[in-house]
Specification:
Length: 207
């Protein structure tokens, strides 16, 4: 049975800069990746976790969502490989993606993106502070053959897909107002700033 929107949690990276698996870093007692699952659940009937091979068992032990690794042909080819893998394994009209390292992410972002769905749009991508956010986006199933072609050509950047399919880039006041929701954490310094900002916000609210 076709599901209208399936979520894809992209957790296949190696976290070299972070020094340990970013997905399992914690913020307010919750793993980073759980915030992404919570956000995706607002619009997705089901979410698949695309895991790095070294973390698959750990994900499987932590939660009940399906856990897969990139298809062997495309392992190590980045987010496009993860999107392609889930599209090949499932049947849905749309796919919503989320990174595993954006602990501020909220489901409202996806609710806004779904309002821009149309029959002639294959990708819906927010723009925040002038920057595209391709890992927090929606992709139509029609992207599948284009993604395969790009992967076969070793053109693994998600941006190449936008040159191939009709893409709608969304600049929305809400995104600008909540630009911190899109922040991803790449190293220990950024994690520390995340925690400091959260503490400051709590203090400001209590004054």
């Amino acid at each position: 049975m076709e599901k209208s929107i399936i979520g894809i949690l992209l957790a296949g990276g190696q976290s070299r800069r972070f020094g340990k698996p970013k997905a399992f870093a914690t913020f307010h007692g919750e793993h980073f990746y759980q915030y992404s699952l919570n956000a995706l659940s607002v619009i997705c009937e089901q979410t698949w976790v695309v895991s790095h091979p070294t973390l698959s068992k750990r994900f499987e032990q932590k939660q009940a969502h399906p856990v897969v690794e990139d298809l062997k042909t495309y392992q190590g080819c980045g987010p496009l490989a993860g999107i392609y893998t889930v599209m090949k394994m499932t049947d849905a009209t749309w796919y919503a993606t989320a990174p595993c390292d954006s602990p501020n992410i909220k489901g409202k972002l996806y609710s806004i993106l779904t309002s821009y769905q149309s029959n002639d749009t294959y990708a819906i991508v927010p723009i925040v502070n002038g920057r595209r956010q391709p890992l927090i986006a929606l992709y139509h199933r029609s992207c599948l053959p284009f993604i395969k072609q790009l992967l076969d050509e070793k053109r693994n950047k998600v941006g190449f897909l936008f040159e191939q399919v009709n893409t709608r880039f969304i600049e929305h006041p809400f995104f600008e107002e909540h630009s911190d929701w899109f922040i991803n954490i790449n190293d220990a310094g950024e994690q520390q700033r995340l925690e400091e900002n959260s503490s400051n916000q709590k203090e400001n609210r209590s004054e």
